[in-house]
Amino acid sequence: MRLFVAVLPPVEAVEHLEEFLEPRREHGDFRWSPPDQAHVTLAFLPDVAEHLLDELGERLATAASRRRPLVARIAGGGAFPDVARGRLLHAGLDLGGEAGDDEELDRTATGARHAAVAAGTEVDGARFRPHVTLARLRRPADLTRWVRVLDTYAGPSWPLDELALVASYLGEGPRRRARHEVLATFPLGGREGRRAQSRPRP
């Protein structure tokens, strides 16, 4: 199974971002990400055997219980691999709470990755850089203007108080839009071993 561990912004935060982006969107080479799939990836697990799911869930629940909730908002933006030759446009994640919140989110991502490895599955991806993917480009382009626009944006704050384990099913056809399904959620700062609550994701 193709899975990832993520932070899922609430519907209100995603809708606020969409209201900001909609009048500014250009067609061109942009392939915009569906709003209902907005997320911040903490750990990408490209190929998880189904028999590992129970242990993975238990280890993620334990890892989440060791971290504290945060307050976050979607704000600012950037591009990967860089602004001058961007292939991916993204919004940023701002943690405006207590001192050390950025480090706490880094530790949360590290804990999720360690939990996956301990459960016996592979973790893919480079250094954790919190972001919400907005659009991808077929060819590299200078995204300076778009990043400047995004730098004027700051969405509403929301409690970052749980992690989600999400399955990603690749679609068919030329667009190959993935379908996401939330398998379970894990509260931050909760009691160790608390059972995850599954919930649907549109």
From TrEMBL:
The molecular function terms in GO held by this entry are: 2',3'-cyclic-nucleotide 3'-phosphodiesterase activity; ligase activity; RNA 2',3'-cyclic 3'-phosphodiesterase activity
The UniProt entry, under NCBIfam families, shows: 2_5_ligase
Q: Which domain of life is it from?
A: Bacteria
Q: Which family does it belong to?
A: Belongs to the 2H phosphoesterase superfamily. ThpR family.
Give the active-site positions. 39 (proton donor), 131 (proton acceptor)
Job description of the protein = Hydrolyzes RNA 2',3'-cyclic phosphodiester to an RNA 2'-phosphomonoester.
- Protein name, UniProt field: RNA 2',3'-cyclic phosphodiesterase
Q: What is its EC number?
A: 3.1.4.58
Is the Ligase keyword given for this protein?
yes
Reactions this protein catalyses:
a 3'-end 2',3'-cyclophospho-ribonucleotide-RNA + H2O = a 3'-end 2'-phospho-ribonucleotide-RNA + H(+)
Pfam families the record matches: 2_5_RNA_ligase2
Q: Coordinates of motif HXTX 2 in the sequence?
A: 131-134
